[in-house]
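Entry: Helix-turn-helix domain-containing protein
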Amino acid sequence: MQNGPAVRRRKLGAELRMLRTCAGLTSGEAARLVGWHQSKVSRIETGASGVKPADLRLLLDAYGVRDGHLRELLLMLAGSEDAGGRHRWWHAYRGVLPPTYRDFISLESQASAMRTLETTVVPGLLQTAEYARAVTRAAVNDLDEDRLDALVEVRLARQDVLRSDPPLVLSAVLDEAVLRREVGGPGVMARQLERLMEAARLPQVRLQVLPFGAGAHVGLTGPFVIFSFPSTSDLDVVVLDQLTSSLYLERKEDLMAYSEAFNTLQFHALSPEDSLDYIAGIGDGA
């Protein structure tokens, strides 16, 4: 388990090592092609150091990588702000957001798909502004109004990934407790349930409810997120959100375990169609 930047460096390094090997080059030969010392290539491949986007382009050119999607993904992992024309908007909130949250947003913006189990609150990508305000106020102590406003702005700005081209594909399983917990008062919760139903009808969103009647389930250990990336599954990562930090799992065994757990949760949850009816019933006071 590591922090996000370390995960991305390791994954980027492993991918570059594979590309170099496929190109039939040793690390020394690769270094000579781009005019570096061999140790620089080795540090990048082991994840000991990052790589500037301009240097990454040199390596990809040297390895004959022409796949535009793969190049874009690797450039984003390297921290490029212009890969794919996407600006890293959250940098404007550096003074407000803790590093772990900035890194989560970075992964979210780069991913092609996101699977999430939520057991306590509505996923951030589906929250209304007033629900987000109530959750943030409860979760973070001693917030002044300006900082609270900024955090809510960030939460809403994150939702643009669902409207991008192509959009993030979101699969969410919500424990019934998420729908029953009255956050912000009856009016706020009623509008939040309406927002969930609107989102559930989007083609890029698959929303399922895990009702109390399903009994004990594998998700009782807590919420989690699985990010998947275009071009290669080797870059996928599981994120476990903690009170003061986030943990990132990148081992294939962990990814497989959490993927199987999510599949099991989807199997026991209501279908997307029945979930819509269930949310509507809760909204009507059923």
